[in-house]
Design goal:
The chain is of the alpha/beta class and 65 residues long. It has two helices and three strands. 42% of the residues lie in helices and 25% in strands.
Length: 65
């Protein structure tokens, strides 16, 4: 279990601080769950992160306000 993949949940993951956190965690080889309002922006962000860092990215379109 020591080598189990790590996963981070990032809210606001398509822009600003949330996007930067997503990139930082992905760079450290964490799989991601990113949450934001726009499914289109989530899909684009997830694809970019997968290509750049080779991690799994699950998206959830939800307004958490």
């Amino acid at each position: 279990m020591a080598n189990a993949p790590k996963t981070a949940l990032i809210t606001g993951g398509t822009s600003g601080i949330g996007r930067e956190l997503a990139n930082c965690f992905a760079q450290d080889k964490y799989n991601l769950i990113i949450v934001a309002r726009s499914q289109q922006e989530l899909d684009q962000t997830a694809q970019e992160i997968r290509q750049q860092h080779g991690v799994e990215v699950l998206t959830i379109a939800k307004d958490l306000f």
